[in-house]
């Protein structure tokens, strides 16, 4: 059965047969469940709930939070967190890539993209003729790239992921092809990936455990069931940081109706960050669940100029004297408003944070910079470093840097791309 014959992305089961050799896999459907959008809810109604990952409170969704927190919700919409997980059929990507092609510079094969209904499929004519392979989801905000994901049945019937060999980037590079909305190029980590199974022509096989980590970091709620993601609240929403909101919403409804007294602070202000016990390290660990902590990478990749240390900001920040000598009160939100994209704060606003400690006029213990005491703090001490062609991250190991430039050489970029893919927590 092909995608055209089924009308759904059941064509992926053909590739699952090549992967595991199980004839029973042929009937598995990969249609995608999508939640109701909550547009019709109001605070006068009980919250619509989505299963929580733990505890008795349940998730209500960012749209529900926006009914009372419209200003924060509007700010949130500017962030990459608001668009980290995309069901392909609901995104503009199929229309963007319809009829586009990319020639793999390593394998010298052509990947041809075509819109199929509302979805998108890719073909490799030199290997599989007209046989389509679906692109089911897109992960990423698009600021750097979208990486494509398809679920197929693996050994024992459990789903595994196919992280597609080609991603849609925002930046150009010598080995990328310009298409509407960006460029097509090899996904980091895929350059020298071997072909062990026929499905490897399309991308890297991601284990069930790693796949669950991908879903956890790119959604508010989402569970893998067969060949689909169920209980889906896409994107990194309010409740990823503040916790499930149903009890908070219910309490506010009762308070506003006059049926209960004013809520205590720990209920009114949802989230552990409003408790006295909450520390800078707690906040860094919260962000580090997805942005990585030192224990998430091998020790040989933790050094001042290693691209992994640059890419995973909490690792560098925890090594910084700014954190260690601030009585460990320097956290991510000291510099970054968690509800705004960092680009909404200009460089002067960021540097004023530095100068609050490192200024000739401050009464704090920080020392002033003898080279440039009033400006260029970020450029000198936290430069943006290219860790993959066109993909830059600011180095958060804040320090007086040596002779290393704010750009890695191509060998370092290739080494990092080979060790860690964009959505591959197995490394």
What's the tally of helices? Answer: 18
- Approximately how much helix is present in the residues? 25-40%
Mean pLDDT: 82
Largest sheet: 8 strands, antiparallel
| Tertiary shape | globular
- What structural class results from the helix and strand content? alpha+beta
Termini Cα gap = 35 Å
* Beta-strand percentage range: 15-25%
* Rg over C-alpha atoms, rounded to the nearest angstrom: 23 Å
How many strand units?
16
Uncertain regions spanning at least 5 consecutive residues: 1-9, 20-45
Features:
alpha+beta; 4-stranded antiparallel sheet; 18 helices; disordered N terminus
Quick structural overview:
This protein is 29% helix and 18% strand.
How does this model look, in words?
It is a single chain. This protein has 427 residues and is an alpha+beta fold. Among the domains are: 3-31 and 86-206, no CATH class; 279-419, no CATH class. The chain contains 18 helices and 16 strands. The protein has helices spanning 3-6, 12-20, 62-66, 70-76, 93-97, 125-128, 208-218, 238-242, 246-257, 265-268, 280-291, 307-311, 313-319, 321-324, 332-335, 347-355, 377-381, 410-419; strands spanning 85-87, 101-103, 110-116, 119-123, 133-135, 137-139, 145-153, 159-164, 166-169, 177-179, 182-186, 203-206, 219-225, 228-234, 384-388, 391-394. Strand 3 (110-116) and strand 4 form a beta hairpin. The longest helix has 12 residues, at 246-257. The two termini are 35 Å apart. Residues 1-9 and 20-45 have low confidence and may be disordered.
